[in-house]
Structure formats: C-alpha cells, structure tokens
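[job 0412] stage=fold_complex status=start
inputs:
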Amino acid sequence: MNAPSADGVLDEAHRRFFGRLVGWLFRLTGDLQLAEDAVAAAFASAVSAWRAGPIPDSPEAWLRVAARNQAMSALRRDQRTIAVAPESFDDLRDETPMTSSLDDRIALLFVCAHPAIDPRMHAPLMLQAVLGVDAARIASVFLVPPSTLGQRLSRAKAKIRDAGIRYRVAEPDELPSRVGAVLQAIYAAYGLADPTADSADDRDSTLRHEALHLARLLTELLPDNAEAWGLHALLLHTESRRPARLVDGEFVPLGHQNTTLWSSEARHSADECLRRASALRGIGRFQLEAAISAVHSARAETGSTDWQSIVVLYRGLLQLAPSVGATIGAASALMQLEQLTESERLLDSLPADTVRDHQPYWVCRARLASVAGDSEQAQAALQRAIGLTSNPAVRRYLRRSVA
Amino acid sequence: VQYAILALEAPADYAARTDALEAEAYWASWASYVTALRESGIMTAGAGLQPPETATTIRTRGGTVEVQDGPFADVKEQLGGIFLIEVADLDEAMAWAARCPAAENGSVEVRPVIPPMG
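[job 0412] stage=fold_complex status=done
writing structure:
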C-alpha cells in the first residue's frame, strides 16, 4: 500500500531538494564530491526507510538531517576537516530548515560554471550536482566514455575543493559573463551546442527536460536577467516543435513540419518568456536566437515564415555573438530570399578546418549548390553531409535527396 | 593519436548487403562515410570485409594446427570493416564512431593503436 506513494514522494523530493541539499552542504564544506555523496546516501537511506515505514511529514527536513549526518561522518572518517571552518560545523548541527533568501542551487550553478573550470565540464557538473543526473547518462549524451567523464568530473571537483572555489555574489561588472557561462552550460545540456548537431534531436528526452527545468529555475532565481528569459524562451520554442521532427521514425526538416503537431502551450509560454525578456531591455544572443526560433514557430499561426525578419535577426546575432551555427543559419535564411551570392560569401567566410567535419555546413553547402544549379557540387557536399551524420533518421532523410 | 574504428555489423547489416531493396542504401551509407573520412584527411587506412561465413580460423595448439570454417567466435555481431584514423583525441574518434553506419544496428568499437615499436 505504502510503496507506490513512497516512491512518488521520493521522486518529488529528489526533483525539489537534491540540488538544494548539495548546495547547502557545499556551502558549508567547500567540497562538492563530499556534498553529493552525502546527499546521494541520504536519498538511498530514504528509499528503504520511507518504503518500510511512515513517510516523514517533512521529507526535506528528514533528508537534511540524513545528509548532514552522512557529511559529518565522512568528514570525521577522512579527517577532511581542514577545509571546514568551526562555525560551519555549528551550521551542520543546526537542524532547523534553511530559510536563506538565496537558493543554494544558484550558488552551485555559479560554481559549476566557474571560469577556472574546464568549460566542457560546466554542463556535466551542473547536471550531476544540481539535478543529480547519473554520470553514465551524462556520458552517453556528451558522447564521452563513462570512465573519462568520471575522471574529468573528479578532477573538476578536486579543483573546486583545492582551489577554494566558493560561492560569492559576483561583482556587478562580472555578473553578465558569469551568468553567460551558466546559460551556455544549460544550452549545452539541452543539446543545442553539440558539434554533432544532427543527433541533438534524439537526445535523452528526460535530460532535455532537466535542462529546461534548469532554464526555468534560472528565471526564478534571476528574474531581472533578460538573457535567462531569452534562454528559457529558446528552449521552449525548440521543445514545442519537437513532436513534428520525427514522424513514424522519419526525420522531417523544420520547413516541412506539420505545424499542428507543434505544442501551442509550449509556444505560448516561450512567447511570454520572450516578452518578459524584452521588457528588461538588455539584448543578448539567447534572446536573438529565441526570436529567430519564435519567427519559425509563428508559422503555426500565420502559415508562412517571415524570412526577412529572420535575416535581420541573424545579422544582429552575427554582430553580437558570431558563431559557426549563426553563420550557417544566416546563409540558409539568405538562400530563402534568393540572395545566393551573399549566402555563399557567408559560407566561404568560415575557416576550412572549422567546417571540415561540421555536418550542418555540408547540408547547407549542398542546398546552396543545388539552388544555384550546380548538381555535381551539390551531390559531393551531400555525400559529405551524409558521411558526417550520426542520426540514422537524418541519414535516411538526406539519402532521399541524393539524385 | 591513431585510433582503430572497428565496425561490428549485425546479421541485418550482412543481409542488407545483398538484399534487393536494401543493398543500395546500405552501400551508399558506407560510401558517404568513407568519403567524409577521406575528405577530412584523417583516414590512414581502411578495409571492408567479406561476410563472416567467408572466414577461416586457424589455431595452433601443442604443435597441432586446427582449422575451422567460419569466424573465431560465434557471436551475433561480427567485424565487417576497420578504419585507422589519426585524430587529436578520443572525443574526436568517438564522434567518428557515432557516424559509422554500423552503429545503427550493430556496434562500433574505438581503440587506440599501439605506437610503432623500436
């Protein structure tokens, strides 16, 4: 009788409290690994205790005490007390629930995306420390051997501990870049910053939802940050169109998607986020990317795509935050407006070694050559694109365009 | 760093090689993959293998030679091709392994190559 509801409470508690508890113990000990291990052990003991006995009135208080006890015995066992100031121990003993106005999860987000940490590790660290995502799943999504990811995570956590990286409120002049790193890591966690961009569509859906959850959390924690709203809008727009991307296992490109399959609920939330962002008047790359995405999504209501606006937005994006992805996006939008020379000029501007293995570049090249009537070049670029594709559905789709 | 990409193909892949409906797509995927590897300038060697039933396996045990028809192990996925690539690190090698057509039905193994001896 008890079992299913205990599991429900556990799931809910994990979602709501994992990051908070890790952040709290990290703040007190400065040791991320210790904090994570203690919280994981607390949840493990909750599984057996809550399934067997009464579920505590306050799961959070129960978990807090359990995690604290785990942390204290680990500190004693390993004599790792050097990093812990005496007053912290008093805090550890204090059983009253935390009522800090600052959510401990934001401290963790900033620590995970600290400039002293390898940027590749920002997103994996966040997923593990703030959301408690299993390392093996993170490894699969980032296409890294699990053992390598494990080593990289341990190295990053050792650095945080030994270099004394602690949470402090960033100075106003450094806040934008620190928030930027947090946003970038959430963007990567969702799968948008993947170099093998074609496989992003198929990412572990729960992990995408975790990333969305982090993006929403950031808007709650930093409601005055326009870019945080921009990122959330971008992820929601992307998510809203996802149901139309794979139909009966076959890939459907954005322009051919059946808009009735798009989620209008997610679209409206995304548009609302973007309105919040623009009211704050601080333009940035995530808002521009979200605005581009919003123009695509608007096809569900207007029946057509306003390519002129998309080109304007891409020009802004290329000024503000030039990237390979933005250049390719701009080139394909220009193609829609039949500005082929300008489109080709943009593609030619990308360094050869950057695009050598970049699947979206070769897809764009193939389309451009095909529109320009050069079928030989189009076929060569398409072959290249197919060979660089790791998503089987996308590979089948591209193969169908082979003459 | 040199890595070997070992393409372990599933029975469905070997069947597709000669299937009237699937052969074209099968060979075209491999042709694109090899083109991409070659155009990227990272492939140092590569070979596709005839199906497992064409294999002959040899063992010498205690002075006796044993010859057996077929591959050395009776497992579902069998080596169908091998590529040697020269890339910066394992991350890059993994990206190439993910693009390998064998990954869809079979599996793809990535292994560092032993550096030349002596």
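[job 0412] summary: Chain A has a mean pLDDT of 87.
[job 0412] exit 0
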